[in-house]
Structures are given as C-alpha cells and as structure tokens.
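If you are new to this repository, start here. Below is one unmodified record pulled from the training split, so you can see the exact layout before writing a loader.
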Amino acid sequence: MDGQKWISLVGLANRAGKIISGEELSVKEIRNGKAKLVLLSADASANTTKKITDKCRSYQVPIRIVENRYVLGHAIGKDARVVISILDSGFAKKMLSLLD
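And here is the target side for that same chain:
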C-alpha cells in the first residue's frame, strides 16, 4: 500500500458524502450498482468476509482488504468499521491506484 495516502483519500471521500459504511448498507449499494469499490478489514468475521466477497464477485465490484477495522474506522472519523463502500467512480479509481 502506498503509505497512508489511501486513508486521507477515504477521509476526503467521506467528507464529500461518497462513502457508505456497514455491512448491510454496503450489500444494498452493491446490489443497486452504486458501490464502485469496497474496502473490507482483514479482521472481519468469516461470515462477513464471505458475504461481501461473494456479492462483490457476482456484481463485479472491486474489493480490497485493508489492515484492520480500527484503521478503516479512523479513516472516516468513526470507531471501528469492518466494511465501507465508495460510491464515486473517481474516488474508487484513485483508491485502487493507491492500494494496488
């Protein structure tokens, strides 16, 4: 990962209102075709990981694994978050370039 630049970008996307956090809301946005990228914490439960990865695979939404739930939550100024979905294609494209 490119340092911690992706964390700043997640924060910016959050302030722009282009992020949804939480498992159920993310699944809903994946189904609706609005999610452009999903970030999943490495310490998510097995059930959550399977559910989110299966949904992303079936709807062709890119998914990336990040360190842990606390890093993900901190990036959007909240407590621990296991899943966040980025709803803007510009933010998603830049995020993929930073994470890959």
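Two things worth knowing about this chain: The mean pLDDT is 92. The chain has one domain: 5-99.
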